[in-house]
Fold each of these.
Amino acid sequence: MLWGVVSLVFLLFNVLPGDPARMMLGQRADLETVEMIRTELGLDRSTGLQYLRYLNDLSPLSVYNHSDPESYFFLDPVKYADKITLFKAGDQSFLLKAPYLGMSYQNRRTVTDMIADVLPNTFILALAAIMFAFAVGLFIGIVCAITKDSWFDRISILISTIGVSLPSFFTAILFGWFFAFVLSDLTHLNLTGNIYEIDDMGAGKVLQLKNIILPAITLGIRPLSIIIQLTRNAMLDVLSQDYIRTARAKGLRFSRIISKHALRNSLNPIVTAVSGWFASLMAGVVFVEYIFGWKGLGYMIVNALNQYDMPVVLGSVITIASIFVLINILVDFSYSLLDPRVRAS
């Protein structure tokens, strides 16, 4: 899957119109300077050669040629200073190294360093959003199942249907306008801001937790709606099982039946949804971060797209895809902890 993501994004950037060298120098740059920058960035080579070099840079196990600069196996000693040489065969070296995501066309920083700077902000935002969605959605879903067909159940289903239908960018604009502009005197919330801000009085970086409220709620609206409906449906299915009726007949407290028997056996689809949405939130924060000025991975991707900075976009997409794969693997292992039937099979 990671290979497919890399190949698709790389192909898209090479078929779309645009010249990174021209973007760096401006429209008035002379042709000689543009060609010099293209050579420096490796853009003067064929698309196939650029693709093979990028895969070789990205792979932890790589093959390099020490003598031929035109080969896609050519070793750049500056990029790969930290490496382990497994063995050599003539001019070819087989190396073990960290994946190299390239350098930004715009500021000449390594993409790895740029992602390391902003990824914690995106992770904090996504984690806050999914925790909000899970806690509130689980509670409302349980109440809806217990009070099936009541006015609370009907209203919750209606609101969750509307919530899952709203795109994040529209919700972000709406929430930002209403809570940070119309009701700013009551909420004291900022339309834009990060979790840390520079204090004007010289106190350095100051923690501003209020800046995460609007983007986290906005980002959590859609998973919240899904979790409400999944929890309600799963709980209704479990509450109709024979062992629940047996537990009631034995005189167990209703709260114990819900928490010990019904909820635990309903968690598998909910955990699947939460994990999938958390991975998706890491990728879907692009519009929310940009609208609220949250300096995270999504904000950086938008700026990189505007500047046609392909290494930054590719590196960010690969990072998001890797997180998605890792989370889904961890969820598969968590099933056996939540449901003994999975462990038995």
Amino acid sequence: MTKRWLWTQKQDVGPSPRSGHAMAYDAARQRVVLFGGETRVGRQNDTWEWDGRAWTEVADTGPSARSFHDIVYDDARQRLVLFGGNDADGVCGDTWEWDGEDWTQVADIGLDPPRGRFAMAYDKGRRQVVLFGGLAAPGIHLNDTWAWDGTDWTQIADTGATPRRGSAMVFDSSRKCLVLFGGTDDLSPIVFNVFNDTWEWGEDDKGWVKVQDIGPHDFGRPQMVYTGKHTVLYTSAEPGRGQGQTWEWDGRVWTQRQNMGPKAREDPTLAYDSQRDRVVLFGGLDHQGEVPHILDDTWELAIVEQPPA
């Protein structure tokens, strides 16, 4: 059977329009959780949940208002883990956990240096949260790899992909490896490299290995999720312009699956709702008008089998 990749807009009310926020699926409570981000009136520290029908604000206290942080679900400990980003005081290095009711700060130091715009995923084989790279300060890009075990951050590599910000990373449980894609760095204040290389860290624990150097060309901070069967990437082929693109990585090559659905945007977020088998996208920054426009739309992607005609 062939498969159809179908995007559907679900909602245009809920969290205020924003970009640079973070989102992850809380499997224990069967909710997509969103925290923070940059809005028209500045950074936020609100927490929202999406149940497939509506958004509900569940907290307005916790970590400081910030953007370009990340959240992942720790499957072993049944907690969401939030790290880093940028707040009013600069780059953050604190670590927080969400138990479904409250945010608790579990570390205020660990990674050196603090950073935003990094890539983070939960490695089910290692049973740890893994973080790669990021931006420590303007022009200072990183390529170190760290692991969080629920108590401490430990550096596990300082080589691999070149220093960069804005990469996407997931753990492919069927192939038992981390998958890292893309990102950017700065050649000058107005010129930057856009990467479309793909790296993997397998269960042999030999570190990062480049497995492909061609793929989608992304300007908008690529977003990636693993559904249990598919590694899904949402990209913007131009900086927040045109139509968004949806791609799949099969361990060897990238294949474009859809070029319809959410319009192109910078800094949206994706999460995979495993209970409902849907990829959820929220928000981002639209550059298609004369003035950038922050979005607050919610979309879902269904990958469905289609019987032959």
Amino acid sequence: MWSSDKKFARAGIDSWLRRAVIAVMAAVALLPIEASAAGWLQDIFKGSKDSKSSKHQVASRKPATPTRSATSRKPHTAKLAALGPANLSALKPIASICDRSKFRIVIDVGHTAESEGASSARNVPEFAFNLRLAQRIEQKLKAEGFAGTRLLVTEGKAKPSLFKRVTAANSMNADLFLSIHHDSVPNGLLENWEFEGKKSHFSDRFAGYSVFVSRNNPDFKTSLAFAELIGKEMKAQGLKYAEQYTQAIMGRYQHPLLDKETGVYSYDELVVLRTTRMPAVLLEAGSIINRDEELKMDSPEHQDIVSGAVVAAAKEFCHPEGPFLGPP
């Protein structure tokens, strides 16, 4: 019995060795598969429709090149984009030290002469307000040593002009992008009146500035830092931010409030904030549909206050003596 058992045992070992050799050979054959082929293997298990000539695909597959998508942004940006307003107060902007003479700030004049934006309560196009304030900001920034500041005035219809200004800013290799606008309200909130014999519209219910950033911007963290500085400086001048953007009455113009102290909102899909390659901020300097605030927006004194706040924010952001680390 023992001799017979020994023969059966030896036969079993030989059989086991043959199976082991086959397994090793199969493993060696699979060695060229890169880690990036794991997705293809998953497709095989899921019954992918693209599984023709599987042997050829295994032998010739190259490491996949990741495609950029909404979820393939820089790791810190993807995480930040998912944060809600309650968590943003814990963020610290990146350090910023710069030479003012070389620091490039693009001051974008919102809208165009062909597509003028909103109309004020006294029938003045928003573009006129935007241009005057942007020019004043440009002058003050240059006077403070920001020699690389550029005023961006775009031509054309509304939507194409958005992409034109982004292309221009990107080609300038700007360090910051600031778009200047003046606010209105949805048509359903407007009231009728006449000014100098002409029919017009107004809404005195809402007033104040607001600052917008996109959480989809490639450098959202720095965008938020600059936006908060602008809001802080506007507040220091005694100005209040517009609070209506969190209200349901704003409809599709409703936006999340990211900083309740400085009036910074997110406008994630706005082209000029989302697709610029540099930190980008949009400032609604005040409401021109509010009859009293429109008069303030039109005065050189108020334009000096707003432009002074923007320049103070730029100076604090671009501090030559040490890094700006943001609020505690």
